[in-house]
């Protein structure tokens, strides 16, 4: 009984595997029926075959088993030469003119089209990107072959695609009207992406020139390399400038430049050299590998492009690890960077899997790197904006600290230290011009008596009123400050002694008329005395001039106060 079951199981297994083999071998490729209506075949089934020898002639290739697939294919890096097979049948009573499109032909090396009717080869066309005489079938980066399909005819198309490194292509079939519409709508999305990156690049270059912060420069370079790679890889350059083939192959090294500039941006934005040495050396090691691969690509671009996927994976792991480390250490910009770079890694991973032929051909997968670059660029622009806001807040804080250090807290006038520094700077500039400069010292009369009689609160009001009067009466060119308790000083550039005296008298008279109420029944008036002296333009000495003004001030007080006096020998 056991032997019988064993034989039965063996026969069943053999029948199953023969059925599976026959199903795979003899699977028929669906025929695309053309019935005279508008033709827009963008999703249909065809067959494909990978030539491992890369030298198989058509006569041999047509005998191979073609696997049924979608008209969109990504076969990876080990399928440099691939064949596609499309079955067409015209059921209409008149000849139909069709157009076979390969919208991604710009990245390939050679496309060959073979037309077979009833087993006979009736036409062959070769499009070689490096031979100008064959470029008649190229239009705005797309390969476009015209095909005549007589009534009731069944025609088989064989398309040979030879790639430089990664094999991926799409084959669409249109009538004349739909063909024109398809060509007109090409690359508008890519132009939009590149335009946005260009705008961000210009903005960051302007920021770099104004701030000299290197992160803006590296971010701008990242945008340039990313935008160039998108324009090259997704056909915008081919569309605008008719560039394709071997001449553009080395331009794909811009893909290696992009992560280099991104890692340099990380180094500067996170300040890893100063604060995070382990992460810093990890980023530098990654940059070294990318630079080495780019240099190698100058001599063997195809091999370099093969390594690029692996290096991209290493870069993603290191950059994400460093960002997570920054996030754990609560760096304020780590979360933004993790969000942007995480999205870039996600979309780029889809793209890498697509290029390797592991996942299906769709828009997001085939354009993953471009989408990832755009999303990351937008999120990184938030980091730039946040960084600018931090720097602006820091500058505001520094200005406020400087202002606190240079101003008197009660009157908000400059203090003695700031006045001395600024006045000496003005005198230094005036050495060559030798214009007249005058200094005045103002003192509140009987200020101690006011404090003792009415309290320090009223004394502060008197000081503030003097400060307000100086602000109102002094000219824009004058430098004035609270020099001591009840003492103020004014430096008057380009002012002679008599002119300074006139200004001092105007201030004195204004203050003489000030009345400060204490309550409903009482108020206080006060006066000031002012001493004025010229600065020696031959040997300008601020302290010497203030000393002379002090002597004039003492003279005013000795003469009865509430007056201005000029210094005289």
Automatic annotation (TrEMBL):
Superkingdom of the source species: Bacteria
Domain GGDEF: residue ranges: 435-569
Reactions catalysed, as given in the entry: 2 GTP = 3',3'-c-di-GMP + 2 diphosphate
Bilayer-spanning residue ranges: 190-210, 217-237, 249-269, 281-299, 305-328, 335-355, 367-386
Pfam families, per database record: 7TMR-DISM_7TM, 7TMR-DISMED2, GGDEF
Keywords linked to the UniProt accession: Membrane, Nucleotidyltransferase, Transferase, Transmembrane, Transmembrane helix
Protein name, entry field: diguanylate cyclase
Gene3D superfamilies: 2.60.40.2380, 3.30.70.270
Gene Ontology MF terms: diguanylate cyclase activity
Annotated signal peptide: none
């Amino acid at each position: 009984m056991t032997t019988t079951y064993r034989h039965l199981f063996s026969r069943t297994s053999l029948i199953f595997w023969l059925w599976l083999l026959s199903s795979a071998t003899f699977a028929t490729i669906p025929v695309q029926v053309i019935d005279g209506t508008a033709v827009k075949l963008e999703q249909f089934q065809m067959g494909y075959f990978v030539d491992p020898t890369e030298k198989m002639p058509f006569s041999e290739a047509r005998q191979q088993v073609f696997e049924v697939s979608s008209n969109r294919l990504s076969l990876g890096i080990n399928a440099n030469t691939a064949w596609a097979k499309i079955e067409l049948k015209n059921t209409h009573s008149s000849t139909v003119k069709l157009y076979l499109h390969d919208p991604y032909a710009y990245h390939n090396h050679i496309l060959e089209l073979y037309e077979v009717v009833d087993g006979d080869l009736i036409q062959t066309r070769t499009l070689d990107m490096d031979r100008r005489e064959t470029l008649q079938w190229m239009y705005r980066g797309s390969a476009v072959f015209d095909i005549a399909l007589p009534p009731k005819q069944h025609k088989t198309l064989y398309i040979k695609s030879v790639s430089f490194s990664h094999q991926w292509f799409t084959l669409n079939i249109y009538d004349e009207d739909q063909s024109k519409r398809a060509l007109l709508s090409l690359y508008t999305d890519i132009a939009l992406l590149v335009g946005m990156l260009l705008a961000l690049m210009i903005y960051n270059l302007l920021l770099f020139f104004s701030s000299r912060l290197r992160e803006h420069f590296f971010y701008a370079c990242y945008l340039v390399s990313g935008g160039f790679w998108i324009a090259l890889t997704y056909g915008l350059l081919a569309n605008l400038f008719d560039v394709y083939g071997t001449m553009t192959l080395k331009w794909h090294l811009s893909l290696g430049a992009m992560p280099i500039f991104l890692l340099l941006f990380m180094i500067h934005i996170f300040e890893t050299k100063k604060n995070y040495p382990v992460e810093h050396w990890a980023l530098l090691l990654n940059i070294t590998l990318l630079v080495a691969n780019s240099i190698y690509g100058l001599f063997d671009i195809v091999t370099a492009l093969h390594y690029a996927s692996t290096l991209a994976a290493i870069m993603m792991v290191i950059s994400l690890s460093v960002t997570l480390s920054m996030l754990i250490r609560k760096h304020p910009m780590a979360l933004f960077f993790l969000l942007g770079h995480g999205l870039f890694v996600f979309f780029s991973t889809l793209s890498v899997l697509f290029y390797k032929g592991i996942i299906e051909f769709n828009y997001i997968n085939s354009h993953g790197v471009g989408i990832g670059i755009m999303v990351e660029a937008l999120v990184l622009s938030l980091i730039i904006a946040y960084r600018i806001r931090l720097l602006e807040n820091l500058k505001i804080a520094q200005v406020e600290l400087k202002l606190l250090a240079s101003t008197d807290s009660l009157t908000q006038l400059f203090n003695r230290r700031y006045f001395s520094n600024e006045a000496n700077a003005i005198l230094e500039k005036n050495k060559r011009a030798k214009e007249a400069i005058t200094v005045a010292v103002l003192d509140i009369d009987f200020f101690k008596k006011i404090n003792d009689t009415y309290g320090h609160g009223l004394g502060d009001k008197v000081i503030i009123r003097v400060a307000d009067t100086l602000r109102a009466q002094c000219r824009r060119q004058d430098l004035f400050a609270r020099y001591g308790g009840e003492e103020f000083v004014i430096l008057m550039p380009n002012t002679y002694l008599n002119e300074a005296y006139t200004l001092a008298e105007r201030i004195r008279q204004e203050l003489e008329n000030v009345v400060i109420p204490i309550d409903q029944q009482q108020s206080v008036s006060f006066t000031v005395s002012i001493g004025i002296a010229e600065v020696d333009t031959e040997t300008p000495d601020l302290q010497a001039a203030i000393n002379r003004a002090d002597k004039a001030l003492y003279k005013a007080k000795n003469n009865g106060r509430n007056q201005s006096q000029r210094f005289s020998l």
